[in-house]
Amino acid sequence: MIRPATAMVLAAGLGTRLRPLTLDRPKALVTVGGRPLIDHMLDRLVAAGVRRVVVNIHAFADQMESHLARRTDLEVVVSDERGGLLETAGGLKAARPLLGDEPILVTNIDSVWTERDEPVLDRLIGAWDPGRMDDLLMLVPTENSSGFDGPGDFFRAEDGRLTHRGDAPTAPLAYMGVHMMKPAIIDPWPDQPHGILGHWKAMCGPARLHGAVMDGFWMHVGDPAAREAAEARLAVRA
């Protein structure tokens, strides 16, 4: 098992759908279950063995730097996007010199989840096979989620290969905000703001995009109602 030592947390977004909660703070510092979203994620990463994390910042960047400086359980490196938002793939491209060449974990900031027997990140790491894949997404059955109102993202073959939903009205699995990838695949990406979905679709053709399915419940904290739903579920689990 290749256990990544480095992760990137995508935390630069404006969090406009979470307003008014993000009028005075970045989305990453909105609290759920008594902890800021970014600390939920950093705690999960530390438990999975990550020792170094790259965090991109933009909105309320000074607040983010001050908060991150309090973490003493792992090395935190900032990828500064004060000059302009770069979106998911653009943010990874800008941070590429900081990521090294070994496989890394990449996470969104608005995902919280509960687990059953196996930690979600351990399941993702355990499914990694660099000979067959360049990127491995953690997925969840749409019925095992809250705060997600989309039609689903992917179909998954028995061997883990993914096909994007495309023109299909629905797909059974949603991307839940965590993936494991080879940093080298970022190298040819353009130095401009853009999302990662187009790259994932391109990987589907040669079957280099794979997926693992989590055993647990995913909460997408995308708006105030979704945050309230996550708070209620975490309170029941406490």
Structure description:
This protein is α/β, with parallel strands linked by helices. The protein has one domain (6-237): Spore Coat Polysaccharide Biosynthesis Protein SpsA, Chain A, CATH 3.90.550. It contains six helices and 14 strands. The mean pLDDT is 95.
Explain briefly what this protein structure is:
The protein is an alpha/beta fold.
Question: Which features does this protein show?
Answer:
single chain; 238 residues; alpha/beta; Spore Coat Polysaccharide Biosynthesis Protein SpsA, Chain A; seven-stranded mixed beta sheet; three-stranded mixed beta sheet; 6 helices
Number of helices: 6
The CATH architecture would be Alpha-Beta Complex
What is the mean predicted local confidence, pLDDT?
95
In the sheet with the most strands, the strands line up as 5-4-1-6-12-8-13
Strand content: 25-35%
The structure class reads alpha/beta
